Amino acid sequence: MNREPEPEPTPFLSLLQLLATHAMAALGAGGPNERNEVYLDLDFAAHVIDILHDLDEKTKGRRTADEDTALAETVSALQLSFVRMSDLAMRAARAGGTASTPAGEGAAAGLSGTQPAGEVTSAGAGEVAQPSEPESERQPRFHKKYD
After folding, report:
1. Could you tell me which residues come within 8 angstroms of residue 107 by beta carbon, excluding any fewer than 6 positions away?
2. Contact by Cβ (8 Å): 90, 113
3. R_g of the chain, CA atoms, integer Å
4. What are phi and psi of 113, to 5 degrees?
């Protein structure tokens, strides 16, 4: 029963893990606080996803198979989480949530702010950031084109 220790992650995988952790925190993965609210910063999460796309382009052909797989799975999971949280935030905003953004966080544009935990569609369950501009005038969240 001699188990060999797992090899240290490559610097690329460590960077990928760091960026993914920050993006997931911005998508509310940190869980609710004492007021049953979850911090959401969709602009920052979209920015990190764009950084991962840039990293993909810049390192293409120089990554191992494990790194390719980890990057593709991470970006896919983050995009899915982003879309789900964006949808929940929009539904909560339409249900009558009140505007709330953390001071000094640059959250005035977009949906950054706090989100109630759990089912965010119930009005009054917590504070929800309202969109700063109508949906038709909003810029796309990601600047990359997805094939």
Report:
1. 41, 43, 101, 113, 129
2. no
3. 18
4. 145, -150
With 0-12 / 13-18 / 19 or more C-beta atoms within 10 angstroms meaning exposed / middle / buried, residue 24 is: middle
pLDDT, tens digit (0-9, with 9 covering 90-100), for 70-123: 999 999 999 999 999 999 889 888 887 543 433 333 332 333 344 433 333 222
Q: Give tens-digit pLDDT for 30-49.
A: 888 888 888 899 999 999 99
Q: What angle do CA 24, 69, 7 make, to 5 degrees?
A: 90
Looking at residue 107, its amino acid is A
Q: What is d(CA 131, CA 40) in angstroms, rounded to the nearest whole number?
A: 13
User: Residue 39, Cβ neighbours under 10 Å: how many?
Assistant: 20
The token pair at 71 is: 């990057």
pTM of the model: 0.63
The span from the CA of 88 to the CA of 65, in Å, is 35
What single string gives the DSSP state of each residue in 15-61?
HHHHHHHHHHHHTTTT---TTSEEEE-HHHHHHHHHHHHHHHHHHTT
CA pair distance 9, 103, nearest whole angstrom: 37
